[in-house]
Each structure stands twice: as structure tokens, then as C-alpha cells.
Design brief:
Length: about 300
């Protein structure tokens, strides 16, 4: 244990998840405010801007068990300490890799982690949009034990006090996946609007989430169901007209979602429209829709 800021902040540097949650529990039971520190890309600027820092910080850099990613026959598991740079070339997870490549600059991707994205829970966070489309499960640990919860529940409630995200788990891809993003200058701004789309050829479904329009990543379940029967699941293709219809259905679904606060540079109607355009493009990219085909419908 060390002290920072002239002794006002205690720094814990655990080597295991057990030690990390024990530090969280000890600080909480002493009534002191404690924050987890992973890559620091969100937390450090926030602490610099704050008048007072937390009483204690638990730095996760030495917890090597959080930095592991792996695959079983059915699932992929990604530790909370895995960075975007670790994921951007991962051939087993093309959607996660594509998402990671769109984040920030090389410096941000080298430091920013999966656990930090879940801890910040920015409604426009790129990874959260992808994990929502993937129906990911979030694994959490406390001094009292472990639990897991779906990404949608996690984003609704956040972690309990004293809880640490240890990993996320999702099904192994069984079809093409993509992630498309409209943003400002890369490396400096979060996504304006983004879209993650995964094709599941085993369960014969399309899974899609849009970020930057609603108060969190928004699953467009009615649009997903609306095109399911129009995909040729044997070849994994669909006519271009279906991609266009999917985009329209996504825009309709987004109009019913609770909107983010109004942003004069990107009005709500622009973001809804952009969400539909990205979804149509993602669908065409994953299901081989040929522009011009199927126009008669
Ligand atoms: C210049 C810049 C550009 C950026 N560009 C993008 C972008 O394009 N897309 C994007 O999505 N994000 C972007 N970000 C945001 C940021 O990089 C991501 O949110 C990143 O994933 C945060 O991870 P971290 O490891 O740095 O988290 P930290 O800053 O260390 O922590 C963030 C929060 O998560 C908590 N936390 C950390 N680890 C855990 C854990 N294991 N369990 C529970 N809580 C935890 C911390 O207490 C803190 O509240 C950008 C940030 C900057 C500064």
C-alpha cells in the first residue's frame, strides 16, 4: 500500500482478484470512498478535473488473471484487464476486433480496458454497443463471492458497491460480424452513432445494437425479427432490398427509444437516420446483399 497526493489518497496494488476485492471491502467498511483504476484513460482525466480525489484507489495493473482471454468450444471469455490493443487482431472474435480498432488512438487502445469500459458505462461506449448485440454476460467478484449477469441488466443497475468486473463472456461467432461507427475526429471523441451487427447462422438470427441514439446501447429486436424469414440461411445471404428494409425497421425502432439529451450538433432525427443507414450497411456487409438486387419488392 502506498499514498498519493501528499498522503491524502491510499493506493492499493493487489496481485490477485481476491486481494483486490479484499481491498475494496476493507475501504468500504472503513467508510472511505474507493475507486478502481485500470488503464486510467477515463479515470485519470476525471480525477484531474475533480476538486478532491477518492480516499483510496485500487490499481488493477498487477492482477494478471484479469488480462487473460480465451476460447472454449462454445464461448469466448475476455478478462476485464484485456486492452483494446489486445483485441484488435483477435481472429476468433472478428466483431470485437473490429470494434476495438475504432476506439481512440493507439495510445488509448494500448491502455483502455474492457473492465474500464464497463466501469465507465458511457452510453456511447463502443464496446458496450458490441457487447449488447452479442448478448454478453458480465462476470463480477466481491469479497463475498462471484456472480454473473446479462449485459442489459448490468447496464441498468451497474456493479454493486465493492464489486469488480472480472470478465465478459459471449458465444463464439457463428457467422459474420461487423461494427460501424460515425464519429468526430478519431482519437479525441466518442462515437456519434454506432452499430454492431452479428449474424448467428446456427440459431438463424441477426443481432443488432445501435449506440449514440438512446440512453444506452439499443437492441432493435423488432427489426431483427422483421427480417429473419427473409434471409437465406443456407447461403447466409439476403437481397439488397432486405438490407434497406432492415435499415428502415431499425430507424423506426430507434424512434421509440428513450433519447439521449439533445445535442445541437447532432439532432435526434439525424442520429436516428444515421442509425438506420449504418444498420442497413452492416446488414449488407454481413449478409452479402448485392446493391440493386431485389428492387422489385
Ligand atoms: C482521448 C480519448 C479517446 C477515447 N476514445 C474512445 C472511443 O473512441 N471509444 C470508446 O468507447 N471510448 C473511448 N474513450 C474512453 C476510454 O478509453 C474507454 O472507456 C476505456 O475502455 C476505459 O478503460 P480504462 O481501462 O482506461 O478505465 P479507467 O479509466 O481505469 O476506469 C474507468 C472506470 O471504470 C472503473 N473500472 C475500471 N476497471 C474496472 C473493473 N474491472 N470493474 C469495475 N469497474 C472498473 C474505474 O473505477 C472507473 O470508474 C476515450 C478516452 C480518451 C481519453
Amino acid at each position: 500500500m502506498t499514498t498519493l497526493g501528499g498522503g491524502s489518497t491510499v493506493l492499493h496494488r493487489p496481485g490477485t482478484v481476491g486481494e483486490a476485492v479484499a481491498s475494496l471491502a476493507a475501504e468500504a467498511s472503513a467508510g472511505r470512498q474507493v475507486r478502481l483504476l485500470a488503464g486510467g484513460t477515463d479515470l485519470v482525466p476525471a480525477l484531474r478535473a475533480a476538486v478532491r480525489g477518492p480516499a483510496a484507489i485500487v490499481a488493477l495493473r498487477r492482477v494478471l488473471e484479469l488480462r487473460v482471454r480465451g476460447a472454449s468450444a462454445d464461448t469466448l471469455t475476455v478478462g476485464a484487464g484485456v486492452t483494446y490493443a489486445d483485441l484488435e487482431g483477435w481472429s476468433l472474435a472478428p466483431g470485437l476486433a473490429a470494434t476495438s480498432r475504432t476506439v481512440g488512438s493507439a495510445q488509448i487502445r494500448n491502455c483502455g480496458t474492457v473492465g474500464g469500459a464497463l466501469g465507465s458505462a458511457n452510453p456511447r461506449g463502443d464496446l458496450l454497443t458490441f457487447l449488447s448485440a452479442a448478448d454478453a454476460e458480465v462476470l463480477l467478484a466481491t469479497a463475498g463471492g462471484n456472480r454473473s449477469t446479462g449485459i442489459a441488466d448490468y447496464l441498468r443497475t451497474g456493479p454493486d458497491p465493492g464489486e469488480l468486473v472480472t470478465a465478459v463472456r459471449m458465444a463464439r461467432p457463428s457467422g459474420p460480424q461487423t461494427y460501424l461507427k460515425i464519429g468526430g475526429r478519431q482519437a479525441a471523441f466518442p462515437a456519434v452513432v454506432s452499430c454492431a451487427l452479428l449474424v448467428d447462422r446456427v440459431r438463424e438470427r441477426v443481432c443488432c445494437a445501435v449506440g449514440g441514439v438512446a440512453t444506452g446501447p439499443w437492441r432493435v429486436a423488432t427489426a431483427e425479427r422483421g427480417v429473419r424469414d427473409e434471409v437465406d440461411w443456407v447461403t447466409g445471404t439476403a437481397p439488397a432490398a432486405v438490407a434497406r428494409r432492415f435499415g428502415q425497421l431499425v430507424a423506426e425502432a430507434l424512434r421509440g427509444a428513450p433519447p439521449l439529451p439533445e445535442d445541437p450538433r447532432h439532432p435526434a432525427e439525424y442520429r436516428v437516420h444515421a442509425g438506420g443507414v449504418l444498420a442497413a450497411r452492416a446488414f449488407a456487409r454481413c449478409l452479402g446483399a448485392v446493391p440493386g438486387a431485389g428492387r422489385s419488392g
